[in-house]
Amino acid sequence: MVDKNSFVPVLDRILILSDAAKTKTDGGIILEGNTEIIRNTGRILALGPDVKADVKVGDRVMFHCFDELPSIQDDVVVIRDKSLLFKFEE
Predict the structure, then answer these.
(1) Could you read off the pLDDT of 66-81 as tens digits, one per residue?
(2) What CATH number is attached to the domain comprising 60?
(3) Single pTM value for the model
(4) Residue 76 domain boundaries
(5) Which residues are within 8 A (CB) of 49 and not within 5 positions of it... i.e. 6 or more apart?
(6) 17 and 11 in contact (C-beta within 8 Å)?
(7) Which residue in 33, 48, 53, 78 could disulfide with 9, CB within 3.0 to 4.6 Å?
C-alpha cells in the first residue's frame, strides 16, 4: 500500500487505489487466471492542487481506463482529472 503522505500529486493529477481484480463476473462466471478485466474503479488517495472535479480523498470513482499515467505500484493509478467519468454515491 502506498503511503499517501510520502508524495503529493501535481497539477491536475489524481492518485487512485484500484479496486481488486475480479475472479468472477457479476453473473457468476469464474474467470481463468490469465483473463484480465480492466480495472477502472477505485478510491481517491490524493489530489493535485489544480483538480477541478468535484471529488475528495476517499471518494470511490470510475475513470477512463486508457488514460492512466505511469505509477509506482500495480494497484495504484495516476490519472488527470478529465479522465474521471463519475463518482459513486455512498
Answers:
(1) 765 667 777 888 899 9
(2) 2.30.33.40
(3) 0.76
(4) 4-87
(5) 10, 11
(6) no
(7) 48
- Distance in angstroms (rounded) separating the CA atoms of residues 63 and 19: 12
For 3-24, write each residue's pLDDT tens digit.
Answer: 655 778 899 999 999 887 666 7
CB 7 within 8 A of CB 44: no
Side-chain-side CA neighbours of residue 14 (13 Å): 30
Q: What is the pLDDT of residues 55-65, one digit of tens each?
A: 999 999 999 87
How far is residue 20's CA from residue 86's CA, in Å, rounded to a whole number?
19
Q: How many domains does the chain have?
A: 1
Retrieve residue 47's grid coordinates. Answer: 489530489
